[in-house]
Amino acid sequence: MALSYGKSLMQPIRLSRGLTQKQLSDRILEKTGLKISVSMISLCETNVRHMSALQLRAVAIALKTTEKKLYEWKK
């Protein structure tokens, strides 16, 4: 079996922090200097696209979590 992403958990984590996608995008820029658009966040939350390692780290920093917790990683 090939290694792959599981379901994105970014949306429930973001919502538990009381953030909109726009607020998350702004927080990522503020905390890391990396620009991730609202549309990219939306695509990633719905598993249409996946983030690069750098983007994943930036989201984790902005949401005060770990990269591992952003996805249900398949075993």
Automatic annotation (TrEMBL):
CDD domains given for it?
HTH_XRE
* Protein name per Swiss-Prot or TrEMBL: HTH cro/C1-type domain-containing protein
- Spell out the InterPro entries in the cross-references: Cro/C1-type_HTH, Lambda_DNA-bd_dom_sf
Q: Which organism is it from?
A: Paenibacillus phytohabitans
